[in-house]
Amino acid sequence: MKVEARFGDSQISIESGKVARQADGSAVVTLGDTVVMSAVQASLQPREGLDGVPLSVFYEERLYAAGRIPRNSHRRELGQGTEKEIVTARIIDRPTRPLFLPGWCFDTQVFCQVWSVDERYDPDMPALLAASAALTLSDIPFAGPVAGTRVCRAGGEFVTAPTQEQLEASDISLVVVSTSDAVVMVDGGAREASEEDVLQAVFLAHDAVRPLIDLQLELRAAIGLEKRAPVETVRDMELVERLKSCRRAEMLEALAVRRRKPRQRALASLRDSFVRDASGPAASPCFSGSPAASGVSGTSSGSGATGTPAVAGVSGPSDAAFASWASDGGGSAAFGEPVTVVSSPASDAAFAFRELAGELVRGMVLGEGRRVDGRGLAQVRPINCKVGVLPRAHGSAIFTRGETQSLGTATLGTAKEEKLLDQVIGETSKPFMLHYNFPPYSTGEVGTPSGPGRREIGHGALAERALRPVLPAPEDYPFTIRVVSEILESNGSSSMAAVCSASLAMMDAGVPLKAPVAGVAMGLVTGPEGPAVLTDITGDEDRLGDMDFKVAGTADGITALQMDMKTAGVTRDVMGTALARAREGRLHVLEHMARVLAAPRADVAAYTPKMGRAEIPPYRIAAVIGPGGKTIRGIQNDTGARLSIDDSGRVTALSVSREAIGAALEAVLSVAGSREGAAPGKEGTAAPGKEGTAAPGKGGTAAFTARAALDIPQDRIGILIGTGGKQIRAVQSETGTRMHVDGDGKVTVQAYSQEAVDAALAAVRAIVGPEQALPAGAEADGGAPGPDAEPDLAARLVVEIPRDRVGAVIGVEGTRVRAVQNRTGARVDVREDGRITVTAPTMAQAEAAAEAVRRSASGSPVHLEIGSVYEGRVVRVERFGTVVEILPGVTGLVHVSQLTRRRVRSPYEVASAGDVMKVMVVEPDKPNQIRLSRTACLDEGVPD
Fold first, then answer.
1. Backbone angles phi, psi at 332, to 5 degrees
2. Once rounded to an integer, what is the mean pLDDT over residues 40-69?
3. Looking at CB atoms within 10 Å, which of 86, 184, 332, 673 has the fewest?
4. Is the pTM of this model over 0.85?
């Protein structure tokens, strides 16, 4: 069966009954071209002694969904789960786990697989919907359904179910998951948004998902299975009540211990006494008197006795919620006959211990307005901060709040060290990474380190999201940044401590953050007296409370938040109160952080990398890199600096030594043709060098006695230099000269004799054409202005093209854009973001150049007719033929068999770079594969 509705800008559908029919429940959700399948399965045998729901959620992105093959060596998804898959699995787990029947003790698994991807939409929300639908349709007791959506604010307007483009342009982006009645989970980030704006976004999303919940209810009414019988545990309630009554004073005394570890020891000793009393009640002082008035035998379904409110700390909704749910769907949704299990005395004792601890802790908060550690409800634990604690780290800090402590370290690297991500929504890279580690000793436990688990990855992702909005723009600060948070102690809110230590560590490393970031975790305790919001919760308050709400941000607004509910949901008033209290707590933390470091350091530590920058023409990038990276590796080895070059020609040098930065940039600019502007500035940034290109000759830097210069068109620079500089090196070698070619086409020749200079100039004229090579400063008759002339650029146009078409406009080594400039007399400035500025003496010239740019960007082929004859110039000679330029920026191949009528062993016997020859078009249809023939233009009977 299939149901569908309109959601956002696309149609969404849920279908069940066609695939995965052996599973307890399955559903396929389609949104646009995104298709996600979910199957759920629960074991038939219960597990005893569980404190929580045995739920596992697996989310898998299949790269065939995007038509791609995995890049790893095994060529298949290995199953460990990427960070994106793990975070998405947690997004599905967190809102569904509290909605299982209290006492549910059957191993339950939820599988979600992405089968197809529409790159407009992230598949995580369809996966959540599919998982909820599969659980709702199955025989597993689940108090759903739930549904979620993203909500963002783009252009000042809130949008639900946004596309990827809208998300990228937004300043608020949240995932909100709801039941039909209340919000159960929030996860997302913002660019310093206000609390009121976040609150508005959350409840706008809550209203938007109601149609998705209605679809699931419609499907359940039609094909939903009868739910399994719940498991009710029969307990000796007389024993439970006697233990609670007898040990109440001791429990209060143990809970009053302020420090976590001594408190845990006292509670562990008390738990053992509960078990001893339950094992031999006849000899226990708890059973020397008459039974407690309320101590009667009865049943319990996991979290409390039947008919009593569930104790907070057990992941399950109230009995009333399940009663309502069981009756609203008719016979197909009703529970079967309950299955009863008689508990053991030890199990009853553990149950009594948990019940008593929960009652007392909640009673303190709701009745006395105080907490286990003696604080007021809005009080933050004592804070201590230190920075620069590690001598060799680029930046380091220790942040301590109460019994939670995080060591943050910041490491800076080049663009080469960015993290590459291979996901169904595309291959991307991350210049900023935050890794969160949670060793067992941080909670006083023994365990085997086995790498980060799902919790660690989820907490690290939250902290990373909190800091990302305050990072400098990559073009202004091209470092790759890795932050590691080592949790040294943990008693609640360690992820927010990681945010604080990471912020301080980056400022210690000199990273120019827009503002420091801090975070605080909020809690909630509900009861007949009403809800109580707690600031800066501890581990016990997280375990025994009804909400875990983490909020991070700057003094100006929220940058990240994450809310998980352990009850049926949260109201707008309670969430508004929690956000307001979180702001107060965050400002308090930021005040303490500012006392040790209020802003990024100007003078960084000795071992922190400094940065220098320069710019080279994009078409000289290959020359700087060299064959197989040989040239750039040599510069790095000689200077000790690390270099990276982006597609626009921006060069970044990193080193702990500013002298090494200057030497590296000097070497790069020397290879690229300009040695100016390489000295690092005060902050370690190099002034951009002049654009240029060079093919340096061999030998040293001795003074030359003869010198001359020529001007050639810019579109002939590549012809003169040749592939990899081969052509110009050959001229230098044959004539014994040294030549320099700048980006404007000025060729400077130096040698020890005038004869050598003249020979080199003659070679240049032969390669580029005698009519093209002019004395320096001269101007060709009737042509475009010479390189040294500055025309009156009165007309100006701006052309916007897609970023991925910039390379097509520039052409190989800049040949295409130079051809447009020479043909039209306009100046064309291309930016890497796709914004192209055209200036010219007249509007007609500017429009002609703009039209040529648009044609290049659109990929429109040049229309050539078979039989057309052109007089072209040989650009290069290959072993299989010659490449001839027949129009500016348009080249074709003359195969060796079409060069001459006589048989030759190599095309080098017939043609050289720079030769002019008549050619005929014989095959113009294939893009970039224009076939030309020279023999077709030779006169019959005339030998060639």
1. -70, -20
2. 86
3. 332
4. no
